[in-house]
Q: What sequence folds into this?
């Protein structure tokens, strides 16, 4: 059984579980220099209408995975919470709370958000075990 290892710097982290399967998380604080997309929902009802989707950008240096083909910022997109999801209301409430926290962080307030990355798209798993982002796009499932 492998031991758990944490690597943190610039407000980001990668945690390796006992199975050696990376569960990437992203820790965002005011020093992360995030920018929410201009069309981010302004209310919980707008977020619901948009299926819980929004995105933010951050410098690739503040992202836990190497992104050798990206020259600028990483675009992190929060995946949809579909109408058929049995936990839709709970997940939308959590997503709205996360979006509000990210808005405060973007304005420079001292807070931290922890985001769970979704590693099903745009990544390569190297034989060494390293996970690399292929482009400048990444997805997130949620956070707090």
A:
């Amino acid at each position: 059984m492998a031991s758990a290892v944490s690597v943190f710097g610039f407000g980001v982290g990668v945690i390796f579980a006992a199975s050696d399967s990376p569960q990437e998380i992203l820790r965002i604080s005011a020093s992360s220099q995030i920018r929410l997309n201009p069309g981010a929902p302004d209310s919980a009802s707008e977020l619901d209408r948009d299926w819980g989707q929004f995105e933010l950008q951050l410098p690739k240096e503040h992202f836990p995975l190497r992104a050798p083909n990206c020259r600028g910022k990483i675009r992190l997109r929060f995946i949809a919470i579909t109408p058929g999801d049995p936990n839709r209301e709970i997940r939308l409430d959590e997503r709205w709370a996360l979006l509000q926290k990210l808005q405060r962080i973007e304005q420079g307030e001292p807070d931290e958000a922890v985001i769970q990355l979704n590693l099903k798209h745009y990544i390569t798993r190297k034989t060494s075990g390293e996970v690399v982002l292929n482009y400048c796009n990444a997805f997130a499932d949620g956070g707090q």
